[in-house]
């Protein structure tokens, strides 16, 4: 099926069909971009062998560009957890409609993006950053230096075979022990990718141990947030690596004209979490 507004591009394969590690030098960046410049943005970089080489949290655009600059001079692919293309004045993009059709039942639906929202009125922040780095925004481009939009919630459902998203984001009704346990589950899952067909090696990086310590020792929700953004950025960087290594095992929702999201393909045999019963009444998992 050719790519178009609201369409999907996906050829599902197994991880065993992914190509062997690259001999060439290439870096894969991940940016968990904050909605505003006052909030922290996570930035991570992995190399072509999946080794974590940089992970940090910064605040303004200049610091984001500086953190990525050493790794995007040559071949690179940067995954932004933020819209790169937004053209619709209201509602949601065709990409979000299509992704939600697949992932909503796993509680991994995407929030709508449109130019009527203040954060997109002057163009997406992620696009400005990608353009400043002179990265090609077309997910189907053969360019050596590219950027794509990714979505960690959908990616972790697919990569870690989760029946629902992990609840490590601070929301009403979620207490500190729950948030801490769920974030540690995510970190355990990322460490487990060391044994995947496309390996990710985070444990050897000293900052990873520090992130785990921050989560384990967190006394307040804001303590977890300081670790959450860098961890999400690592997910974004790994998705970029996965897209490059396994291009036939990813789904592109939408297109470059109306906006798109790239994610590892949802396994056809993965089932969402069913309703649990408490005191005889069905209780659905909370987002």
Summarize this, please?
The chain is of the alpha+beta class and 287 residues long. It has helices at residues 61-68, 94-103, 118-121, 125-132, 152-159, 176-192, 206-217, 221-245, and strands at residues 8-10, 27-32, 41-47, 52-58, 76-80, 145-149, 250-255, 259-264, 276-278, 281-283.
List the helices and strands and how they pair.
Blueprint: E1 8-10, E2 27-32, E3 41-47, E4 52-58, H1 61-68, E5 76-80, H2 94-103, H3 118-121, H4 125-132, E6 145-149, H5 152-159, H6 176-192, H7 206-217, H8 221-245, E7 250-255, E8 259-264, E9 276-278, E10 281-283
Parallel strand pairs: 2-5, 5-6
Antiparallel strand pairs: 1-7, 2-3, 3-4, 7-8, 9-10
Describe this structure in words.
It is a single chain. The chain is built from 8 helices and 10 strands. It has helices spanning 61-68, 94-103, 118-121, 125-132, 152-159, 176-192, 206-217, 221-245, and strands spanning 8-10, 27-32, 41-47, 52-58, 76-80, 145-149, 250-255, 259-264, 276-278, 281-283. Strands 4-3-2-5-6 form a 5-stranded mixed beta sheet. It has a 3-stranded antiparallel beta sheet with strand order 1-7-8. A two-stranded antiparallel ribbon has the order 9-10. β7 and β8 (259-264) form a beta hairpin.
List key phrases describing it.
single chain; 287 residues; alpha+beta; disordered N terminus; disordered C terminus
Strand order in the sheet with the most strands: 4-3-2-5-6
- The helical percent reads 25-40%
The stretches of 5 or more residues where confidence is low (pLDDT under 50) are: 1-15, 275-287
Spatial separation of the terminal alpha carbons: 33 Å
How many helices? The count is 8
Instruction: Classify the beta-strand content into a percent band.
Output: 15-25%
Radius of gyration: 18 Å
Give the tally of β-strands. 10
What is the count of structural domains? 1
Give the overall silhouette.
globular
Oligomer: single chain
């Amino acid at each position: 099926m050719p790519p178009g507004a609201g369409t999907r591009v996906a050829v599902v394969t197994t991880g065993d069909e992914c190509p062997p590690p690259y001999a060439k030098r290439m870096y894969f960046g991940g940016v968990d971009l904050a909605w505003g410049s006052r909030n922290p943005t996570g930035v991570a970089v992995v190399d072509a062998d999946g080794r974590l080489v940089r992970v940090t949290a910064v605040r303004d655009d200049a610091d984001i560009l500086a953190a990525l600059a050493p790794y995007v001079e040559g071949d690179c692919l940067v995954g932004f957890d933020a819209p790169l293309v937004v053209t619709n004045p209201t509602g949601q993009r065709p990409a979000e409609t299509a992704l939600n059709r697949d992932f909503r039942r796993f509680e991994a639906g995407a929030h709508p993006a449109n130019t009527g929202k203040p954060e997109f009125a002057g163009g997406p922040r992620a696009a400005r950053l990608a353009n400043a780095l002179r990265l090609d925004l077309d997910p189907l481009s053969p360019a050596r230096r590219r950027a794509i939009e990714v979505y960690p919630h959908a990616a972790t459902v697919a990569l870690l075979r989760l029946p629902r998203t992990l609840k490590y984001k601070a929301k009403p009704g979620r207490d500190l022990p729950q948030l801490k346990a769920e974030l540690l589950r995510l970190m355990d899952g990322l460490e487990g990718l060391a044994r995947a067909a496309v390996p990710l090696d985070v444990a050897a990086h000293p900052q990873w141990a520090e992130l785990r310590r921050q989560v384990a020792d967190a006394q307040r929700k804001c303590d977890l947030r300081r670790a959450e953004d860098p961890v999400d950025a690592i997910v974004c960087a790994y998705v970029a690596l996965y897209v490059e290594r396994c291009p036939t095992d990813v789904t592109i929702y939408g297109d470059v004209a109306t906006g798109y999201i790239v994610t590892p393909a949802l396994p056809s045999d993965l089932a969402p979490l069913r309703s649990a019963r408490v005191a005889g009444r069905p209780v659905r998992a909370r987002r």
